[in-house]
Design goal:
The structure is a single chain. The longest helix is centred in the last third of the chain and has 14 residues. This protein is mainly alpha-helical and about 70 residues long. The chain is built from three helices and no strands. Helix 2 crosses helix 3.
Length: about 70
């Protein structure tokens, strides 16, 4: 199936799950790279309070806030 036909069928709301080889699926630019950042204790405390309020981890909160700023 050509991409144009696939796109049209997708846009028409057709279920195309059986047309995709999910073993070859990939998401570009999502490879992880570790970074270390030092924060003062009062910043970590504030992050922990906000993370608890939102029901997420500190790391998830930091990732979310940075992603929002970069978008």
């Amino acid at each position: 199936m050509k991409a144009t036909e696939f796109d049209k069928r997708f846009d028409d709301g057709e279920d195309l799950a059986d047309q995709v080889d999910w073993s070859k699926a990939r998401r570009p630019n999502v490879e992880m790279k570790r970074v270390n950042v030092d924060f003062p204790a009062w910043v970590v405390s504030g992050l922990d309070q906000q993370a608890q309020r939102l029901g997420v981890t500190r790391q998830a909160l930091i990732k979310l806030w940075i992603a929002e700023k970069l978008a």
